[in-house]
UniProtKB/TrEMBL annotation:
This is ABC transporter ATP-binding protein. Belongs to the ABC transporter superfamily. Part of the ABC transporter complex HmuTUV involved in hemin import. Responsible for energy coupling to the transport system. Keywords: ATP-binding, Nucleotide-binding, Translocase, Transport.
């Protein structure tokens, strides 16, 4: 479980997050949503210790800064936004980097890597050089690397952005299955329909503030959709309030 109390983050006099308090229970699939620039990535980066902060973050009741970074890397894995990979390595070797915090010693690591490739459906790509892959194939490779960490908690920034509709559904179904098996997954999504359909609860941010945390019906209430996104939910889906 992750507990956040009165969290504020500023970088170079710019306020990224303002007085956020929330609880993220273990074993749940959480969608972190909000408009561009709302603070979603900033919150994820703060949870893995990449930003200085005011307030309290506790992982299983232990303050974040009391957990040594090596142990933290085994417990929490972060997949950043974007799919650029500069090194001409094979897909299998990129996925193997997920084992780095554990050292790469055992046959067990090989089966974990094989499982991660299988889980995201890219076994056939394992010998390809990543710099030759399509954007979606690279995104799946990075996701497999994240799964290969076997961390209890996965923080995943916009994994569906470059995926076709079928792969988006497949990836969300993988997240659902992993959380049903006990993992905690926080995933940044812009597709509110995917968030509504798959997540146990949503965290809605706007302008660095927490607007709502709870089930989709609460977080994406008509009031919040209008105030935060300028949207209303019509019979044909979301529409701009001023259209
Ligand atoms: N290091 C930084 N220095 C200054 N401003 C920053 C820094 N990092 C983020 N910001 C600003 O903080 C705000 C929140 O950024 P963040 O990346 O967390 O948004 P986001 O909700 O993930 O957005 P998006 O959906 O567009 O990816 C943005 O206005 C961004 O420009």
């Amino acid at each position: 479980m992750i507990t956040v109390q009165n969290l504020s983050v500023s970088v170079n006099n710019t306020v990224l997050l303002k007085n956020i308090s929330l609880e993220i229970p273990a074993g749940k699939l959480i969608a972190l949503v909000g408009p561009n620039g709302a603070g979603k990535t900033s919150l994820m980066k703060t949870l893995i210790g990449l930003h200085d902060f005011e307030g309290t973050i506790k992982i299983n009741s232990v303050p974040l800064d009391a957990v040594d970074p090596e142990h933290r890397a085994k417990k929490i894995a972060y997949m950043p936004q974007g799919t650029t990979i500069h090194w001409p390595m094979t897909v299998e070797n990129i996925v193997a980097l997920g084992r780095y915090p554990h050292g790469m010693t055992e046959q067990k690591d090989k089966s974990i890597i094989t499982d991660a490739l299988e889980t995201v459906g890219i076994t056939a790509l394992k010998d390809r050089i990543v710099t030759t892959l399509s954007g979606g194939e690279r995104a799946l490779t990075l996701l497999a690397r994240t799964l290969a960490t076997k961390a209890d908690c996965l923080l995943i920034d916009e994994p569906t952005a470059s995926l076709d509709p079928r792969h988006q559904l497949d990836v969300m179904a993988v997240f659902r299955r992993l959380t049903d098996q006990g993992k905690t997954i926080i995933v940044i999504l812009h597709d509110l329909h995917l968030a509504q359909r798959f997540a146990d609860r949503l965290i809605l941010l706007d302008q660095g503030r927490l607007i709502s945390s709870g089930p989709a019906s609460k977080a994406l209430s008509a009031h919040n959709l209008k105030q935060v996104y300028g949207l209303i939910e019509g019979t044909d889906g979301f529409e701009a309030v001023d259209s």
